[in-house]
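User: Teach me something about this protein's shape.
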Amino acid sequence: MGLAEHAATPYLGMVLASTAQVGLIIISKSALASGMTNYTFVAYSNALAALILLPLSLLVHRSSNRPPLTFLILCGFFSLGVLGCLAQLTGYTGISYTSAEFASALLNLIPGFTFVLAVVFRMEVLNCRNSSFLAKTLGTVVSISGAFVVTLYKGPEILTYLSSPKLHYEYIGVVAAQSSWIIGGLFLAADCVVSSAYIIVQASILKKYPAELIIVFFYCFFAAILSTSVSLITDRDLSAWSLQPNIRLIAVLYSGVFGSAFQVSVAAWCLHKKGPLFVAMFHPLGIVISAVLGVIFLGDILYLGSLLGSIIIVIGFYSVMWGKAKDLKVIDNNTTNSEKAPLLPIENERTTSIDGS
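Assistant: First, the predicted structure itself:
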């Protein structure tokens, strides 16, 4: 039972991280609609996350088991900060032009980009005749297709949850007033590319420096410095730094604690344990979680397209997970065989020695 719970931990962690990300998309939309710029929002959230992670990372990764910091490792941390800052800035800009639902759907392009980059950098083996590779490829395509079904096909109503209609209509009004779908879509597409590169770079750094919280701390630290510098150059109005109205303060606290510190740390740990494709494949689940939270908290209507798209996403997700599980089984078998293999040459060597004497 303990082993099963340990194996299920990365899955639970990524579900919680995906839920936190959906909540971040919704609450950041409200903060940006109040006049807060994406530069100041990213600066505040990453600075808060860095303050939280500094003592926590030193406590978890003590000096006795902490890998040594080198100049190349610090350069890798800085590159993560650059990529992460770009991803957040382009992502929040895209959200400000569109809606949370549209952003959640378009961000499901990340698994496809990540899979391609993982193959290019040989983190995933390209073998079209291998059943696990085909399962991961088809699963990625199916999940992305499901995301677009949710986005493009509405269908008839299935379920309406009348929890907070006032909030729902105010939210829709904000979206309708500030949407510019083409510009927002381009920014979100750029976010997908940069986020995929971030996942790949982070995976390579984790192999050399397996201390997740320290990596995330430096990422948030550099991202805060970079976004603050950009904000001071572009935001001439100091009111952009104000945390009033209260929705700005709430959004910053949520983003710093759950968006950056919690979500990024959990994703980094899962990335270290399961690889880049595993982490990327949970992005399509975000739109399923977004639909559920929208029905419960925003009074959204559940449409047939959302239900069908969610089912397609889950099918694609399980296809990829099956392929990953088969890869792990092959690795375990090879490891077991390699541990037994050295016994054979030793036995043959002894036989030769006896015959030769």
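Now, about its shape. The chain has one domain: 2-356. The first strand starts at residue 157 and ends at 160. If you'd like, I can walk through any region in more detail.
User: That's plenty for now, thanks!
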